[in-house]
Amino acid sequence: MLKPLSGIRVLELGQLIAGPFAAKMLGEFGAEVIKIEPPKTGDPLRKWRLLHDDTSVWWEVQSRNKQSVTLDLRQAEAQDVIRQLAATTDVLIENFRPGTLENWGLGWDALHAINPGLIMLRVSGYGQTGPYRDRPGFGVVGEAMGGLRHLSGEPGRAPVRVGVSIGDSLSALHGVIGVLLALRHREQNKGEGQYVDVALYESVFNMMESLLPEYAVFNEIRQPAGSSLPGITPSNAYMCADGKYALVAGNGDSIFKRLMSAIDRGDLAENPAYAHNDGRAQHARAIDAAIEAWTRKHTLDEVLETLHEARIPAGRVYDIADICADPHYQAREMILDSQLDDGTPVKLPGIVPKLSSTPGTVERRAPKLGQDTERVLTALGIDADTQKDWARRGVI
């Protein structure tokens, strides 16, 4: 059965996280992904985090289902190859600083003229327009400018990062949505392409819920609140007798009543002031204290067993060892068994979203640097002698 994106060719010019993450998702659902990397060094992600045989194991996640072609995009011959590939490409993904592709003669206007049906996903720190467009922008900057970093951490302490490159990943997800919308538009409008402009800070800002209207109406500047969710009660982390934390979200009106009954606080369940969230939010400290007074008497497992029986949303704080041991992850095929080039076993994340008829798959492991250069260039009609000359001069 054909996958949703079978027949779609993606040309990935990006590096590191945001652009490549978007291409990874498209590849998992059938798109042919040709990744362009600098000769000799390749994508810097190959050297990020923990290395095995001189290559990051992260690479196995980010670059599965991709082909690797090495091109020095600063050289005229390589730029001409991109133009040839763009002529038969559906989606081009790049996450350079705005203006970089234009300086190489590979900007939107130039490639759109070659292929009017081309869709170009452009991911950058601040977008393709505006006074900040020329500033370098990594995910950490986007997280800060988008408002997320200010809310992270404990009150009165330095803001903390989430722990992963969430700004880049959110931008990639917005980019995939934009690409799918643009493909649909192309179907409806006689093959008309367009570019998708995704800014890191805007992708983060789009997740900020009521932050803006609360400021506009109440002049409220939301502050970091640790593990609680301000204005939504109860929703917090509570210490248990064994020193572990239970995460409890009892903020629905009927859920709150069941929670109070489960912890033997029927008096709070029937208190009219706590019937709805707006009333509970005014008494968050008292409610949190009542819940933790109960959790401190029981182990985490005991707490979760009681709350799950009462149909209360609750859970533990998972580390990666917990994730690997969890039967639900296994049942949902969210941990895939694979191996590295030398046969070393490795576990990789599963694929989301899960489609019932045309699920995503891993058809190909992450490529070695330049693994597909010869095949792709030969298909373009570039002969072996020319390729040897280009290799000698560092074009490929």
From TrEMBL:
Molecular functions (GO terms): CoA-transferase activity
SUPFAM superfamilies on file:
CoA-transferase family III (CaiB/BaiF)
Superkingdom of this entry's organism? Bacteria
Q: Which Pfam families match?
A: CoA_transf_3
Which keywords, in A-to-Z order, does the entry hold?
A: Transferase
Under which name does UniProt file this protein? Formyl-CoA transferase
Q: Which organism is it from?
A: Paralcaligenes ureilyticus
> Which lineage ranks, top first, belong to the organism behind this chain?
Bacteria, Pseudomonadati, Pseudomonadota, Betaproteobacteria, Burkholderiales
